[in-house]
Amino acid sequence: MNLIEANHIEKSFGELQVLRDISMHVAQGEVVAIIGPSGSGKSTFLRCLTQLETADRGEITICGKQMMRTENGNAVFADPKTLHEITLCAGLVFQNFNLFPHRSVLQNVTDAPIRVLGISKAEAEKTARSLLEKMNLSDRADYYPCQLSGGQQQRVAIARALALNPRVLFFDEPTSALDPELTGEILRVIRQLAEEHMTMVVVTHEMAFARDVADRVIFMDGGVIVEQGRPEEIFGDAQNERTRAFLSSFA
Ligand code: ADP
Ligand code: MG
């Protein structure tokens, strides 16, 4: 079963066409890495899939629920209830953590379950504490984001995303705001989620990580998917010249 089906996605900002007919399907349990140069449309694509941006055309189905389709050349979106259900099914972890600065770690993790799911504070805190333990942050529950390292803040952001019990997680360059020594702790968490068969789409510049953890690697450039395949195919035997040129810049 596919948890993500995106077909023929197009998106422009004014005159600038950022996504040009992108199609991507992700099966349940699959880990997909998206790589590609800056400005190639990776973030815009994730933002269209997570309702932070509206695609101009195409068809998106997440967790079996159709989020948008195209009729007579125009995007038509699902009703608010369906869009809300999709929000609960698919979480997003940002490059810059995006925690609430004036709320404690615990409050950051319990906010959405209480406010969005309507579960009790006690229940939300129980779940939050077990997620913080999993993120190795049990002793930081009462801290504020500014009192944490970037790596710790990102682990809080991951706990916050997991608190809604999503079936899919999107990560947009989750380590690129971190010092190199803090990158490893985030990659270990994502690797652990992969071992637990969480379905994930990870935009990353960490090529060794993509090679190790992803089931499939997608190379985007200029608003299109140039090439995709198993990590060994992309990293060992890329067919497209642009893919090879991009990868050689990491050598
Ligand atoms: P990537 O994540 O691959 O670096 P982005 O999706 O962030 O690429 O950006 C793709 C292109 O779209 C870039 O040229 C960027 O400047 C442009 N862009 C992104 N968001 C906006 C926006 N909100 N308004 C105008 N242009 C944007
Ligand atoms: Mg980006």
From TrEMBL:
Residues 4-247 form the ABC transporter domain. CDD domains: ABC_HisP_GlnQ. Pfam families: ABC_tran (PF00005). One of its GO terms (cellular component) is plasma membrane. Its main location: membrane. Signal peptide: none annotated. It is found in: Cell membrane. It is a peripheral membrane protein. Keywords: ATP-binding, Cell membrane, Membrane, Nucleotide-binding, Transport. One of its GO terms (molecular function) is ATP hydrolysis activity. It comes from the Bacteria. This is Glutamine ABC transporter ATP-binding protein. It comes from Butyricicoccus porcorum.
